[in-house]
Amino acid sequence: MAHHQIVIIGAGTAGITTAARLLNKDRKLDVVLIDPSEKHYYQPAWTLVGAGAYKYEKTVGNTRDYIPQGASWVKDYVTEVDPDNNKVRTKSGEEMTYDYLIVCPGVQYRLNWIEGLDETMGKNNVCSNYIDSKYTWKVLQSFKGGNAVFTQPATPIKCGGAPQKIMYLTSDYIARHGLKDKSRVAFATPGSVIFGVEPFKDRLMEIVTEKDISLFFFHKPVKIDGPGHKIYFELMEDDKDKLFYNFKNDMGYEDAGDNRVSLPFEMLHLAPPQSAPDFIMNSKLAVQEGPDKGWVEVDIYTLQHKRYPNVFSLGDVAALPTAKTGAAVRKQAPVLVENLWAFMHGKPLTARYEGYSSCPIVTGYGRMLLAEFKYDNVRDSDPLLSKFFDTSKDSYAMWLLKKYMLPFMYWKLMLRGKA
Known about the structure:
2 domains, 7-stranded mixed sheet, alpha/beta, 26% strand, 24 strands, FAD/NAD(P)-binding domain, single chain, 419 residues
């Protein structure tokens, strides 16, 4: 049975960034990453790919090229974590023990949590930038009018702004191709607001009004009839006055009985339901009860597990009350590394993660605003950027940041533990 000083589950953004930072701190550390994927993806650009504004090939790299020098890579799936015995098991049957464990395998898509979604995803004009951004672009190019519907599930999702970004780009595309008079764009969310942080919410509501987009609040997607081009929602609120903004009578919105409604579509984009991977949900590392059930139970400031002190977690799988984004990982990784280092040397954990995350919300071709916030939905702008830009206002400069600067920073700096 192999033994390693530090085992990292996951070689995505969180795993590689953390491994790089650890080895930058001490090249003698014994670090192994476990991940089955030969490819590494820059997922934030998939919004642009779905709108024809970025080449998919530029979002893909080889995992091997980004494993930090000095780290080992086990190309396998983790199937079981046994924190009581400091052990993990992989799909191939290999068992591995550790002194310290870092958990960051990302999320698992649950297409079967919405009736009919698994059968129709990637066809019948049902698309998702999370799954196949190239198909989204294909659907958009073939759109000739009707309802373009954008929605998201009631589960936590990574990059919570992504379902909106492609909507704004689609609205622009429709206008540019002379389709606005025969098209309707709608955003349906189980939530009560389009965005939870001021002043970004106010600006997004202005954009929704400018683009004549309809909003459906408290609408939880529960069924998709792909061949029939119809989506069904369960209503999460009884007060009808809270359900709509800019409602259009000609969209074909209908009562479907049993507290459900239906809406026809010619284009449907959605974020799929998401959860922690099964091996996390079934392990003792997961929160056992309550709204965070199934996600890794960590102290939200130190990122140390609440019951297993030699276990740390970051990224999408951690039960943290903030948005699941790469920007969050960029702030979490240095905190985790400092606190793990302190724990390894018997010192108090003093580094704190305050919940920073950011969502670069593309509001159209050539326009973006940068929503930055921390715990409790408090705005938390980058001090350097704030000297030059009001990031709550969408601008061309922010678009350039999204399309060119952020990918450069990701591939060249962040994955090397330098940003």
